[in-house]
Specification:
Blueprint (H helix, E strand, L loop, with lengths): L34 H12 L5 H10 L1 H9 L10 H11 L4 H10 L2 E4 L21 E4 L4 H6 L1 E5 L6 H16 L3 E4 L5 H11 L3 E6 L12 H10 L1 E4 L9 H14 L2 E4 L7 H11 L3 E4 L10 H7 L4 E2 L3 H8 L21 H9 L6 E2 H8 L3 H13 L3 E4 L2 E4 L7 H4 L3
Parallel strand pairs: 3-4, 3-7, 4-5, 5-6, 7-8, 8-9
Antiparallel strand pairs: 1-2, 2-6, 10-12, 11-12
Helix pairs in contact: 1-3, 1-4, 1-5, 2-3, 7-8, 7-13, 10-11, 14-15, 14-16, 15-16
Protein name: DNA-processing protein DprA
InterPro entries: DprA (IPR003488), DrpA_SLOG (IPR057666), Tscrpt_reg_IclR_N (IPR005471), WH-like_DNA-bd_sf (IPR036388)
Family: Belongs to the DprA/Smf family.
Length: 411
Amino acid sequence: MTTPRPPHRPADDGAPTPRSAAPDPGPPPPVRPTPERTARAALSRIIEPGDPRAGRWLRELGPVALWHALTGDGPPPTGASRTALDGLRLRATRADPAADLTTAAALGARFLCPGDDEWPRQLDDLGDTRPTGLWVRGDANLRLWALRSVALVGARACTEYGAHLAATLGAGLADRGWTVVSGAAYGIDGAAHRGTLAAGGATLAVLACGIDRAYPAGHTELIDRIAQQGLVVGELPPGAHPTRSRFIQRNRVIAALTRGTVVVEAALRSGSLVTARRAQSLGRLTMGVPGPVTSALSAGVHQLLRGEATVVTSADEVVEHAGAIGDLAPEPRGPILARDLLEPAAARVLEALPPRGAAALTDIARESGLAPDVTHSKLHELSTLGFVQRSGTRWEFVRRDDPGRSRRGGT
């Protein structure tokens, strides 16, 4: 296996974002299948996703020669064992790329190859584990949508807290013109997709099966809606079924396709952590949303945060880390109190009053460091605003049980 290319983060080249006023140019018009495209479509059924050995053969021979080698019409790849070839050649007998391409076209889908204008070039960072091609449903341009994309992933059996956060983050990222990428699974994935769709944003589902299949079945309506309003993407040809290993390999595509991965909820053995660690290995950003320290579904996120991942709690913070220079999240601030709006001299007089009891004008002036006449003027201002009250010749804070306090202002 060769060393993958140096990590590459897709740069914003000024392309229109999904919610911008500029029109999305959409996918290129259908192209006539070339021998290379047909061969890659066949290999997508023969080769398991993420197989580095087959990826090396593909790099060395090219797609057409490798297809011929696996069908027995050409010499075998250098160093290929008889056992490995026999298994792949058995699969090759069932490959019918023309039928797969026809099925995809009937769905309104297309098959992308490396080098196509719509191919997201950041996937090339996967080296010999790069997909042989991508089957895509949806009218948007995959490359443009992926330029400003973030993955939101997490537990399938999530809590209400996690689902709420995922939907809120998805909607917030949509409002800021970012594409939300996830795997269309139950739990966090589904909540992220739904939150994005509800906000009218761009979302992309990466499947571990054929793009004509809805998995899980309970998300059939959601996946169809994503295909109508966003994009559904997969490495496997129409009709292919998901397996455990295909879910794991699907995660590498999510990690490579996006600028960063946000884990919302994840247990210690969650597949979402695989996505985050793969993102780290590719030089992408990893982020995590903290949860209750007593929750097992947040234990994996907290472990991630002890490493190189960054804490995020809002869409603004996600964009600050994954976006361009100048995409700064607003500084978190508490609620503005009435006393925060006082001009400096009045604030000093207010601070000079004792917390309990009353004080004479001269004592307040001495404590505030202001002249007595200035102190007297500011005390009357504070009295008008409802902060202080006069008690004979002395001044004190307005009591909480003072019925006139709310009428006069207060804190």
